[in-house]
Amino acid sequence: MKKLWLLLLAGGAMTFTPACNNDDDDNGPVCPVECTVPATAEIGSEITVAGQGFAATAEIALRDASGTETKLEEPEITSAGFTGTVPTTLTPGSYGVILYQEGTWEIGTVTLSKATDKACPVLSIILPEAIRLNGALEIAGAGFSDDMGIVLENAADQSRTELTTSTQSTGVSCTIPEGLTAGTYNVILTQGIYEWTIGTGIPAAVYKRLKSVSTESNTIFKGITTEEFIQSLVDAGYPEEMAQSYADMLLKAVSSYSFSYDTNGNLTGCDQEGPYVTGEWYAIQVNGNQISGENKQIMEGMDGMQSFTWTLEDNRITQSTIIWQTISGTSDARYTWAYEGNLWKSVNNPDGSPEITLVYDEGKFMNVIQSNWDDSGSIFTYGTEAQQNSIFGVDIAKIIQMTQSPDFTDDQMLAILLNLVGQATTTLPSTINITNMGEVTATADISYTFDKDGYVSTVEWNVPGGEPIMGHEIDHQKVTYSFKYE
Question: What is the pTM of this model?
Answer without folding.
Answer: 0.78
